[in-house]
Amino acid sequence: TESGCLSIVVLGASGDLAKKKTFPALFNLYRQGFLQSEDVYILGYARTKLSKEGLRDRIREHLKPAKADSTKDPTEVISDFLKLVSYVSGTYDTEEGFLKLNEEIAKYEESKNGAEGPSRRLFYLALPPSVYPIVCKMIRHHCMNQGGGWTRVIVEKPFGKDLTSAEDLSNQLGELFSEEQIYRIDHYLGKELVQNLLVVRFANRLFLPLWNRDNIDNIQIVFREDFGTEGRGGYFDEYGIIRDIIQNHLLQILCLISMEKPVSLYPEHIRDEKVKVLQSVEPIRADDVVLGQYEGYTEDPTVPKDSKTPTFATVVLRINNERWDGVPFILKAGKALNSRKAEIRVQFRDVPGDIFKCNKHGRNEFVIRLQPLEAMYMKLMVKKPGLEMSTTQSELDLSYQQRYQDIAIPEAYERLILDTIRGDQQHFVRRDELKVAWEIFTPLLNRIDNGEIKPCPYTPGSRGPKEADELAARVGYRQTPGY
Ligand code: BG6
């Protein structure tokens, strides 16, 4: 690993994402020894006039000391971390602030002149995407590493609103930075069980021969939240649930669950396979979509009264290749539902020659729960214990909390920031991947935006519109009793 001094610049330092995700992730990396005080400098940048103490106070509230800190006073660990944090204020579209920023970084690098290895600069854009192009331009012109070390930039979705705007953004950023310098975060790729998908699929003999249309009936990828868009109505209403969750988070999961085995674990080999499977996704059929909007959504003062933005959607995707022809992938996401949960449900076909008459009770189902309480479990038919010969469905259950009691599962952002520092792009979205993702959804989004497909109302706290359950059932999903 490289060991030159490292400057991490968080642009948009006084915003929500920075406070709630970026700084806490940096703190956790520091706490676990991945960022050493001797060689890291963290700089916040934003428009707000603020002293460095002011920024530190804002961050402090969001840092949680972990139990593992017991050897050292946890609040001391927090103050030690905060000592590494400084602040520069400036606008996003004029050079003054960026010149100041560059001066600060250069000063720090000079002070570390004796450090082994070239200095490194990481820019984290915790900003609205409308300013990405100008901010990247400013970084490119005024803040690049001159010392032979790297400069990398982390950006976060939304990457455009449709194919054209996304390509436009990609072109603009592509003129300033090479693909190796751009890290597009989809934080679902940093989740423990998402990172587990390729291992489970390709390191288990058990699954290899079963993972195809001959054995799998349908796959459901579900995201539910039990809260609405409170406080984010303005952003959300412009995007809707498909752009917010399905086109990125759920589609990334679909890639990992359906792609072919990569040639190796080299990041480009993995991303090549993801692109290929996305290219095999068929155009979305109108009758494969159900939209919903929870009752009360438009009462949010930041949402237009006549908004038709979906807060819920079920979209069935079909992959036209040898492995998956005929298997529906049911992508479902919703706000203000009955629970907060993200999971993948792989439902196997019925048993042929069903002498136990058990098909009607349920099928084999492999469930991967990303959150909460990470788990993988397999639904199996077994004999119901007792004197009678009857069958019942039961689980082989791997719950992480029980099995890995002593291992704290890292936050997605921690892992992804560390990957960026290490230069590993495997868990980031490549430009061509992003393009195909937009190609899949743009025609549907246009129809929704034109009012051709309207959302069905649903009660907050429910399972979503009943039409969505009907669609899932129509394409073959059989609801497990009690689910
Ligand atoms: C974000 C979406 O990308 O993911 C939010 O913009 C959503 O709407 C969030 O709430 C969910 O992330 P997580 O990690 O809490 O499941």
From TrEMBL:
A Gene Ontology BP annotation from the UniProt entry: pentose-phosphate shunt, oxidative branch
Record field: catalytic activity: D-glucose 6-phosphate + NADP(+) = 6-phospho-D-glucono-1,5-lactone + NADPH + H(+)
Q: EC number(s) per UniProt? A: 1.1.1.49
Task: State the InterPro entries in the record.
Answer: G6P_DH, G6P_DH_AS, G6P_DH_C, G6P_DH_NAD-bd, NAD(P)-bd_dom_sf
Ordered alphabetically, the record's keywords are: Carbohydrate metabolism, Glucose metabolism, NADP, Oxidoreductase
Q: Can you name a GO cellular component term?
A: cytosol
User: Its pathway?
Assistant: Carbohydrate degradation; pentose phosphate pathway; D-ribulose 5-phosphate from D-glucose 6-phosphate (oxidative stage): step 1/3
Q: Name one Pfam family in it.
A: G6PD_N
Enzyme type, top EC level: oxidoreductase
Please list the residue ranges annotated as the Glucose-6-phosphate dehydrogenase NAD-binding domain.
9-196
* UniProt similarity note: Belongs to the glucose-6-phosphate dehydrogenase family.
- The protein in question is named Glucose-6-phosphate 1-dehydrogenase
> What lineage does UniProt assign to this protein's organism?
Eukaryota, Viridiplantae, Streptophyta, Embryophyta, Tracheophyta
